[in-house]
Structures are given as structure tokens and as C-alpha cells.
Amino acid sequence: MELQEKVPVPIFTEVDKDVFLREIYPERRPAVLRGVCLGACLEKWTVEYLGQKGGDREVTIHVSTVPRMDFLHKNFVYKTLPFKEFVKRASEKKHTDFFLCEDESYYLRSLGEDVRKEPADLSKQFPDLAEDFHIPQFFEPNQFFSSVFRISSCGLQLWTHYDVMDNLLAQVTGMKRVALYSPQDALHLYLSGDKSEVLDIDSPDLNRFPEFVKAKRYECVLEPGDLLFIPALWFHNTLALQFGVGVNVFWRHLPAASYDRKDPYGNKDPVAATRALQALERALHTLDELPADYRDFYGRRMIQRIQKRTYCDIVSSTSTQDATLPSS
């Protein structure tokens, strides 16, 4: 079987705002930042401490009978638990109290107070815990969008997807493997919206997804205290090697008007991109008025024009010629 190329994500130490903005950020590539001060959370956030501080606050969680969660086909259910009970269960491998089965997996992605309008903010949903967590000041305060609290069972794997904002993933407790794919490999990832249909990235079904092996895989294992810089549009897939707690910090690196104002999650395409995709759909419907051989001819011309107008200079002319859509 053809093997996917793997590249380790580079690790940087002694990173401050100046180093980040000068040496790391302009590259627009993932980077592990080790040794950045995250606050007292690294020592304090035990299961007992989290339960004590979170208390009986009700949280909505994902629960699944299998550790590989699939958002496209919804192989999980949403349930509600007091926070301290959720943390207790998520830290266990076998449960005496459960919803579906004794080895079910749990996942929390914190939400805003009004889930339809407000982004998650650790300081608002969990103010006591927010006092322990120091958000690295690698961006301007007015660029801040959200701080998302994440807790997952050991073995939990989340689907491959992209976000439209830059973010820092802070691993506070436990170890987590992260696999990432460049935006320029999007054609090999079999996208449905912002998510990849390839669920098992370690043993993919190459009969269904033959192009997947062409995507270069970047990989790292985060340890407690590590920060992972995930540039916007980079696809990422996470696997919890241990029960783990983390915080995602998202910020707007484009002008604020570029983003959908009704998007509390930060994963809707920028307004201009949405308009362009809608225009493309209208153009394709117009081509449907032509016979098949004409659609093929003008479709190829459209693809060529799009490539010439939009592809970055770092894509070689050879890869531009090869980057046609995989056969359906």
C-alpha cells in the first residue's frame, strides 16, 4: 500500500510575542511552542480540582460508543451532565454510571451563554478556572475571538476539519497527537463542507479515497504545557493519548468585516469566500444548459482560469497542472 508522507511539526522554545511574530507567524505553518507560560493551570488542573471549581454547572457533551467521533454521520449523542460528574467520567476508562455503554467516550467543547450568538469564552463560562490559565499575548486584544475549553476521554479522536481563524491549542493536561494537512492538499481530503470524509487517517480505505495518500501529513505529540499554532485553513485531526484538558484560543487575523457576524464557532467561510462559492454554483447550473461535451470543455477552461487567478506563487506550474479534482 502506498504510504502517506509524514513530516514532524517543528518545535520552538523560548518563544515570546516578538519571536512568534517575526519568525513563526509569517511562515503560515504549524509550530509547537514549548515553554510558554500558561499559568497555574499546569499544576492545578487535576480531576478533583476541576470538579470542585466547575461544580454542578450543567454542560452539554458528546457521548459515543466508539472513540473515533464522526460529525458527518453523527455517531454520537448530545447529553447533559453536571461538570464535576462529566470530568469524573471522562477521566475513567470504564464507567459504573453511563448513557450508552460502560466504555463510552466523552468530549466537551465549551459553548457561549447563547450558543447561537456568543463565542465560547473561558473567563465567562468558567471564571474560576480562567484565573489559572494565561492566554499568550501573541495577538492584539481586539483581535480575540474565543477561548474554547476542551476535555476528552483517553483514546478520543476528532474528525479532520479546518477553521477560518488562526488559533493556539494549549495542551494543559494529558498527551495528544495532532495530524495536520496543508490547505493546498484540500483536493486530496474528500471534503464535505469544512470536514474530511476520511475518518480513519491511519488506515484509510484507499478504494474509496485513493487520492488521500497524496496529502502530506504533518504530525506532533503535544505534552502538558505545549502550545500548537494552527494557522487558519490548516486541516487538523486530534487523538487523545491520555485523558486530557486543553484550551483553544482563536483570533481574527483578517479584518473583522471579513467574517460572518452570525458565526459563534469561527468555522464559517469568510463572507467573500461564501459569495464566490455561491457564484460558482450559479455558474455550474448555467453550464447544465449545455451538452455534456460542452460542459466538459468550458468546465476545464473555468478550472484553468481559477487556478491562474487564485493559486499562490509557491505552487509550482507542475503541481498546478496536476491539481485537478479527483474523480468522483
**Helix fraction?**
10-25%
Structural class: alpha+beta
Strand content: 25-35%
Biggest sheet: strand arrangement: 2-3-14-9-16-7-6-4-5
Poorly predicted runs are 314-328
Biggest beta sheet summary: 9 strands, mixed
**Count of DSSP H/I helices:** 9
Number of strands: 16
Our Rg estimate from Cα atoms comes to 21 Å
Summarize the structure.
The protein has 328 residues and is α+β, with helices and mostly antiparallel strands.
Structural account:
Mean pLDDT is 92; it is low at 314-328. Helix 3 (47-54) packs antiparallel against helix 4. The strands form 3 sheets. This protein has a 9-stranded mixed sheet with strand order 2-3-14-9-16-7-6-4-5. By secondary structure, the protein is α+β, with helices and mostly antiparallel strands. The protein has helices at residues 17-24, 41-44, 47-54, 83-90, 122-125, 127-130, 271-287, 292-310, 317-322, and strands at 6-8, 11-13, 31-34, 58-64, 77-82, 105-109, 144-152, 157-161, 166-173, 176-181, 191-192, 195-196, 217-222, 227-230, 235-240, 244-251. It starts with 5 loop residues before the first strand and ends in a 6-residue tail after the last helix. Its EC number is 1.14.11.42. It catalyses: 7-[(3S)-3-amino-3-carboxypropyl]wyosine(37) in tRNA(Phe) + 2-oxoglutarate + O2 = 7-(2-hydroxy-3-amino-3-carboxypropyl)wyosine(37) in tRNA(Phe) + succinate + CO2. InterPro entries: Cupin_8, JmjC_dom.
Keyphrases for this structure?
globular, five-stranded mixed β-sheet, disordered C terminus, 328 residues, nine-stranded mixed β-sheet, alpha+beta
